[in-house]
Specification:
Strand content: 15-25%
Strand order of the largest sheet: 2-5-6-7-8
Helix content: 25-40%
Number of helices: 8
Radius of gyration: 23 Å
């Protein structure tokens, strides 16, 4: 593949390096299918001029990781423990705390030797014009090999069909989940010099204190998946540069605008947009009931 920057160099054009993460790539995919607003993508996810309020699942996930490994928030603060108005832990808080104990038991049983938590890996490709960043939950020795271990607290453990549902039978079809495996293997290869580092998920239900799963996820062809992922990053970076030049497209909706932290936005709506729908009439056939 001829790198896009070759043409730029011939023309004397400097390419802006676009900062990416696997989370941003997922948001960009949603933007391109009109499921996510371009203004929000630009101001919140890309330029970080506004900060989103963490959702309950995010807060539960942060608390779960803290209970498991002592990992704090990115700003160094301790994650918040969700409690009721009376100060007692919510039912889901109790579940994730029970699940944290299950994770610690898993560590003992599997003899997982945790080396570090919260490691930041960054790779810059000036030719392709992107900077990729990832934060590892756990770097550990598992079954004799240095590996990445990612912790998940989810209400969708065992869900086959939802895009973020965790089921081994359909996991391979869910790009929004598999991208994390590929992205972190890519970063470990580029920054740690480890080809195809083992990758594990410890998945724990936030709906009860019992259900959990322990997966090792392999990629079928490391070189092919890394090449495809690198092409994806280059394509997303090119798309972002194009949108920065010509403008991001807003895709407002009542539901998403309600959650968006960009309050003074000229595209914000509070009522649904009018949709015009064409119909053929009715398909009921009275002849079916003729005497």
């Amino acid at each position: 593949m001829r790198k896009p920057s070759d043409i730029d160099k011939m023309l004397g054009i400097e390419r802006e390096i676009i900062s990416l993460s696997q989370s941003f790539v997922k948001r960009y995919w949603e933007y391109k299918t009109e499921e996510y607003c371009g203004i929000r993508l630009q101001l919140v996810d890309l330029e970080k001029k506004f900060k989103e309020t963490p959702s309950e699942p995010m807060m539960l996930g942060n608390w779960f990781e803290y209970c498991c490994t002592g990992m704090v928030n990115r700003d160094g603060s301790t994650p918040e423990r969700l409690c009721t108005s009376t100060g007692k832990p919510t039912a889901k808080t109790k579940y994730v705390e029970e699940q944290a104990e299950r994770f610690k038991h898993l560590v003992e049983v599997e003899k997982i030797d945790i080396q570090s938590t919260g490691d930041v890996l960054i790779h810059i490709d000036e030719d392709l014009g992107f900077r990729l960043k990832g934060v590892l939950d756990v770097l550990a020795v598992i079954r004799g090999q240095l590996a990445i271990l990612d912790l998940k607290s989810t209400g969708l453990l065992g869900d086959e069909w939802k895009p973020t549902g965790w089921h081994p039978g359909t996991f391979n079809q869910k790009d929004k989940l598999t991208i994390q495996v590929v992205a972190y293997k890519y970063l470990a290869w580029k920054q740690m010099g480890i080809r195809d580092i083992p990758f594990y998920f410890a998945i724990h239900s936030s709906s009860n204190g019992i259900e959990s799963a322990f997966w090792r996820v392999n990629v079928a062809d490391f070189d092919v998946s890394m090449s495809h992922f690198e092409d994806t990053l280059a394509t997303v970076a090119d798309g972002v540069r194009n949108d920065k030049q010509f403008g991001f497209t807003p895709f407002p909706s009542v539901k998403e605008c309600e959650k968006c932290p960009v309050e003074k936005c000229s595209h914000r709506i509070s009522t649904p947009k009018l949709m015009t729908i064409e119909i053929d009439g009715i398909y009921h056939n009275d002849a079916d009931f003729a005497l």
